[in-house]
DNA sequence: GTCTGGCAGCTGGTCTGACCAACAGGCAAG
DNA sequence: CTTGCCTGTTGGTCAGACCAGCTGCCAGAC
């Protein structure tokens, strides 16, 4: 006889599973409201506490969203999913992974290199946001905090221009821990002005390469730019 | 007067937030057990139902894990995060249509390209695992399932050879959602034998390039290999 | 001595029933 | 037509209870 191990799945998990499948399969349209907790209690034949635990799980995964507290949950739309918990998953991953800064920088180079390559391949690239941030940076002289913020927006705009949501997601997650170190490096500079000027020029050059649809050149420039940024931190 | 909107955060969310921060900050080491629900009830001064809702959220995010049902929760390890919620995030993204498969393939190219590049730069590369998998694939004729499994191990070995933990973690998450489509493509083949042969040769060529410390060539070969794999799926 | 059985005290899983605050709608008095 | 109240619904929270499964201890049987 070969017996098979007994499986015990908690009720809240089964409830969550069914709801999850209903959402992902599209039988509950994005944006529509979920049934009230008391209704679900009847539908599944479990107590409200059980239903609530299932809902908390769905909420944490970003498949269900509460616009305001105390308002009924809605099925998440695609865009909301990537903006919220999906990004958190990678933020948590990188924080718990405790990867050294050099690894994160390497990862960032790979992501952004691929992003600008993809952006350059597009027939019509939307780079308005990126260009706008370059202008912002041109207007900054020695305010490293403001510069760093513009820098974040610039690089995210680059990745957004690629139109690749997966790249964008991971980029969002990796940008944060790495940005902290950048800011520290900039702050440690005696005279930040020439450095900020140089970085701004590099940004402009990257945009130029993408506009010229030269993906290889753009990728090279991005990689050089990023590695240069963290050279000091990495020693 | 400029008033600021009143913020109301549910108790379960605040409990989850505190626990999450404790986990991510490392004050609860990975693998260690969380306090029992009744202890947390006392610590936070809330009812057990509230604590449980917070725990369900952490569990859904993958930060807390129950080995068996009815066993106390433990703090997750990084690898478990990439295998769990981060992977699910991609799966949900795909199913909800927030990102096409081609985006994930593109991401995978970027990650693996960077990985083999980094591996080639190392003075002494450890490619034994990758080579072993190539041998396994050489021994397979038409068993696509076994081939796919060896393929997974091969590509993970490549990324592991780069020594970059961040790349590895993200790769773990993206590999499976993408692998499902690969398997479907292979199954759809009338005669898989010549295809598997070709893929095996490509794998061997990639290993060769890394051993020759030619990162550029290795990256090119990896990218071509991966894109070729999914050409059918992408149409 | 070792092994067995059973008890006691944990844990998580679930339920019941209750109360409150916030919101939406209807309805009546101004 | 507005104001204001009343009511029913929703989510948020609580207290208390019970069960099932696990763990460790200890006494009795061999």
From TrEMBL, chains A, B:
Stretches assigned to the HTH gntR-type domain: 9-78
Single annotated GO MF: DNA binding
UniProt-listed InterPro entries: GntR_C, TF_FadR/GntR_C, Tscrpt_reg_HTH_GntR, WH-like_DNA-bd_sf, WH_DNA-bd_sf
Domain of life: Bacteria
Pfam families: FCD, GntR
Listed PROSITE patterns: HTH_GNTR
Keyword vocabulary terms for this entry: DNA-binding, Transcription, Transcription regulation
Name listed for the protein in its UniProt record: Glc operon transcriptional activator
Organism name: Paraconexibacter sp. AEG42_29
Taxonomic placement: Bacteria, Bacillati, Actinomycetota, Thermoleophilia, Solirubrobacterales
